[in-house]
Amino acid sequence: AKAYPYLVIDAHVERVRREGQVRSTAVLWVIGVGADGYREHLGLWLGASESAASWRAVFEDLVKRGLTGVEYVVSDEHAGLVQAVRRFFPAAAHQRCQVHFQRNARDKGSSPALQERVRDGLRDVWAAPTRPEAEARLARLVTTLRGEAPRLADWLEQQAPDTLAVLDLPDREARRRLA
């Protein structure tokens, strides 16, 4: 069994013919990243949805196949996925995927100009060299948005810290590759 300190996890929905009908089906996938930075596809699984039960089956399979050493997991915030990650890898840090988060933030912006400011602000936060600096940049972004978009500012204040776990990784190259 090989240790994978880092996992990158996601899913997408495909239309798949099953039981004589074309149905929406979740395609769940996991990439393991070794300590050497080498990425390896650990598998693809089909599930009815991105439920906790579907992800539990994925992680049970991976653990049975010898997956060990998971220290850090990056994924979107899907509730079933996060619940299963916490159950199977309780000691691992969870990083909310910055790409998914940025899309969610953009969708909350009421105008293209606001969406652009949020995008640029988040990029600045994530470019910080340390977590305390990122937190300070995030606080400034929230303050600048509070007057114009208070609900967006509140959402960023509550949710964006979940995107900063990558700054706790000691390896700068790993930080760059795993955000």
List the helices and strands and how they pair.
Elements (H helix, E strand, L loop, with lengths): L5 E13 L2 E13 L5 E9 L4 H13 L7 E4 L3 H10 L4 E4 L1 H11 L3 H15 L4 H16 L3 H10 L12 H7 L1
Parallel strand pairs: 1-4, 4-5
Antiparallel strand pairs: 1-2, 2-3
Helix pairs in contact: 1-2, 3-4, 4-5, 5-6
Question: What report would you give on this structure?
Answer:
This protein has a five-stranded mixed sheet. The longest helix has 16 residues, at 131-146. Strand 2 (21-33) and strand 3 (39-47) form a beta hairpin. Helix content is 46%, strand content 24%. The mean pLDDT is 91. It contains seven helices and five strands. It has helices spanning 52-64, 79-88, 98-108, 112-126, 131-146, 150-159, 172-178, and strands at residues 6-18, 21-33, 39-47, 72-75, 93-96. It is of the alpha/beta class. The two termini are 26 Å apart. The chain is globular and about 50 Å long.
